[in-house]
Every structure is written in C-alpha cells, then in structure tokens.
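Format notes (please read before filing issues)

Several people have asked whether sequences and structure tokens are stored in separate files. They are not. Every record keeps both together, in the order shown below: the sequence lines, then the token lines. Line labels are part of the format and must not be stripped during preprocessing.
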Amino acid sequence: MRIYTYLISGFVLTSFFMVGCQKEEKNAQDMRGMLALINAIRTAGCQCGSDWMPPAKELTWNDTLASAADNHALDMDKRDYFDHISPEGTSPIQRAQQVGYSGLYIGENIARGYSSMQRVLDDWKASESHCKTMMDTLYTEMGAGRSETYWVQEFGSR
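Then the structure lines:
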C-alpha cells in the first residue's frame, strides 16, 4: 500500500492507493524461483516412487503458462474446490489455450494447504505421479501460480 499526502487549498488530503500489480509482480518473481528448484531436481535426476528418473533438460519459464496457473489457483481458492477440472468442466489444456498458449502438451500439478514453496515441492517430489510430471522429458517449459494456499504448476511443450 502506498500513502500519498497532498496539501490542497490549505487542507491536507491523504490518499491511500493499493498497488495490486506489485503483488502480482512479487508472485511472478516467487514462482520463477520455483523454476530454479524444479530445474535443480531435473538436472540431478531423482527417484519417483520405485522408478529412477534420469537427469532431464532444464525447463524454461513461460508467462502464458504462468497466467493459466495463476488463474486456476485463484479460481480454486475463490470458489473453494480442488481439482484439475473446473466445475464447468474446463481442463488444463483448455485453460492454457484460453490465455493464448499454443503448445500441444500440458501437464499440471496442483496442491493446497501449503504456505511454503519448499514444502509443496518436497511433497510433489515424494508423490510418484507429481514427481514424474516434473521430470517428464516431453515438457520443455513451465509456469506456476499461487493463491493463498493453492499452488499450480503448468508444464508444456510446443
């Protein structure tokens, strides 16, 4: 929040401006930090359940996938549901296409109830299916989003 004080004709006028874009920018920067953590896992390789996943090529950040992830996290948070499919039946690929993503493949990890990025990543890594999504060599790019305790990763390739 920013506070501005003006002196107008002898009166003091104080204005409060909520700067929403700053929160969005901070969220995007935080989520880009997730990319570095995922790439560290991918370049080292990891155990996903009973399967060893060999090192994989690093992912690049995709703002369009991040927008789809943010939108889905916010939607789940505001409407209090938790699913890959929205109540209207919209799938991850449909949501990505709605915001302009032109890739053919989409993978999605979702989580809720976490306040820490490291904790949600640790639990995704401990889950065989989520871990395999993060390690899948089909994917070349990712975006991520968060709303309160809802987290979404979108993986894609063109």
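For reference, the curators noted about this record: Residues 55 and 136 are 10 Å apart (CA to CA). The first helix runs from residue 20 to 44.
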